[in-house]
Amino acid sequence: MDDEFDFTAKDLKHYPHFDAPITLREIRNLVTDRERVASNSFYPFFLYEESWQPFRSIDAAKPDKKTRPIRYGARRDAYIFAFYRRKLSRLYEARLHELGIEDCPIAYRQVLKPGRGGGKCNIDFAKDAFDEIDRLGDCVAVALDIKGYFENLDHGRIKRIWCDLLGVQKLPPDHYAVFKNITNYRFVDQREVYARLGYFGLRERNGHWVPGFLVPFRDMPKQLCSNAEFRAKICGGDPKHGPSLVQKNALPHGIPQGAPISDLIANFYLLEFDKVMADYAQSQGGRYMRYSDDILLILPGGSAEARAAIDFTTTEMRKHGPELRIKDAKTCVAQFFRAPDGLYFRHLKQRPDEPSKNGFEYLGFRYDGQRVYVRDSTISRFFSKVAGAAKRDARRHVEDNPAMDVKALIDSFDFPLFSQRFSKVKKANLSSDYRSWTFYSYLKRSAGAFGPKGDRILKQARGFDDFMKARVSSAIVRSVEKRQQPKKVGNRTFLEHSGK
Questions:
Q1: Sequence-separated (6 or more) residues with CB below 8 Å from residue 438
Q2: 452-491: per-residue pLDDT in tens?
Q3: Is residue 89 a contact partner of residue 96, using CB atoms and an 8 Å limit?
């Protein structure tokens, strides 16, 4: 197997699913055998909802929570998807080079840093965009969003581009099996599966019955059930367990976000669109970039040029699938203009759900022509994440030390260890692998990348230590108070800590 396509230990999947783990040797034998791939029985994807609370400014109404459906496949299926992604990715990269648009689609790819090696991340892409604004000076930055991108990709178009990349009229049986199972895919609700198999249900906590795992997640088996149980309990083979939990995507569009090949499909789907848009931007003397469903045009001019660009993009998008639309409410336009003392901006159109009064936002950063900042919503989400972790860790600390009072619990809590997960790390530990970054190392890299313009970034997280300690301490106090509340079991009421 080519080294580029080979699997290593870091590629192994360890999450619970319907199939049993397999060895690296078994993976290689599976994915390189075209007949086995063509005849593989793909399991349903697991579906869960990823949700988050959007940031709001102090004077804005609280927005509704946002959700995104995530689907992930069984292990052996994921290895097949990953292997065919790598095969198609090489062809896709060659096509980008042939079309001269290697720097336009920037998500889900390794875009190398010039002269220094290593791949770019969102920090570098944001810097590229802001540098383009600096270069043009008097210009407009137009950010557009494709509505429900993954859910609306047309299957016929996917197949046509897939064939075109392979240089064939008809997909070979192995490729067709992969295509069929990433488009007409089956899925099950993750929570319903766990409940049907007895891993999830009502459990008692602090005197109340609440839904939760009946088995600690870390103790759940990697193979959730046998094939016989899968057919009987999940597929509805045995009526006593209830109807089938398996659903199917019967629509002529949509791919599961979360599958190892879906990101590549989301990229190559707009090959022709990217070429047209890159040519348009170049003809205007500007630049075009696309990060998955986020489109960015930076063009010389003002409101007229921005309006023309939006109209052109909207018209062009309609040619690439009957369900694809530019979401007008997510469109953001900022005009930059030179003054004797520097570059300034003003908004021509803002996003009503995420307004920013202080600059143009792109890939997690905000630029006002003078300074670069991390987006306020990014800082807010970080502090929310810390607050959530403080609540969980404090509760566990209280549960593990039932004899301690509040003061002893706070004094014995390992604040430095907790802080390491989010805050400062030693400079020597700042790896180029973004997965090892803490939030502080991310801020530090960002400040370094943007140079003098990013000198305010580190100050944005000022007060983290005090915030962390306050949140943990208050969470410990609340957990102790709950521990001391009367709990009713049957007809008997008693204090949890009393032992009576």
A1: 420, 421, 422, 423, 424, 425
A2: 999 999 888 888 888 889 999 999 999 888 877 665 544 4
A3: no
